[in-house]
Amino acid sequence: MTESDEEDRADALFHALADRTRRDIMRRVLAGERSVSALAAKYDMSFAAVQKHVAVLEKAGLLTKRRDGREQLASGDVTAVRSVASMLTELEQVWRGRIARIDELIASDPTPNHRQKE
């Protein structure tokens, strides 16, 4: 996977999770497989609107759907959720490193502005 592909994947994952309803759908499907119609019954919106939310999550790879007769069943993909957590951990490490360097610079700064006035 190229760096551009990885960035596109990150964009899709974070876009999918940026919506409150989609995050709630993810909580439900990670707890167990749910039919899209059962999911739709939980929200004050049309079935078509819930289907669109599910489609965004599926496109991002956060859930998978399968057919069982006339029903579409959705399941959360734990591996995809872990990849999101891994990306966030990576970003956190970058920022912790930057903060540590700033702290070191402040501690080693010999300028009079950082000494207490007498």
User: What integer is the average pLDDT?
Assistant: 89
What's the story with the biggest beta sheet? Answer: 3 strands, antiparallel
Output the radius of gyration. Answer: 22 Å
Q: How helical, in percent, are the residues?
A: 55-70%
Q: What pattern of helices and strands is seen along the backbone?
A: HHEHHEEH
| Overall outline | elongated
Task: Strand order, main sheet: write it out.
Answer: 1-3-2
Distance between the termini: 60 Å
Per DSSP E runs of 2 or more residues, the count of β-strands stands at: 3
Flag low-confidence runs.
none
Task: Briefly say what this structure is.
The chain has 118 residues and is mostly helical.
Which features does this protein show?
single chain, 12% strand, mainly alpha, 118 residues
Q: How does this model look, in words?
A:
This protein is mainly α. The protein contains 5 helices and 3 strands. Helix 1 packs antiparallel against helix 4 and helix 2 (20-31) packs across helix 4. The radius of gyration is 22 Å and the shape is elongated.
Please specify the SSE layout and strand pairing.
Layout: H1 3-17, H2 20-31, E1 34-35, H3 36-40, H4 47-59, E2 63-68, E3 71-76, H5 78-108
Antiparallel strand pairs: 1-3, 2-3
Helix pairs in contact: 1-4, 2-4
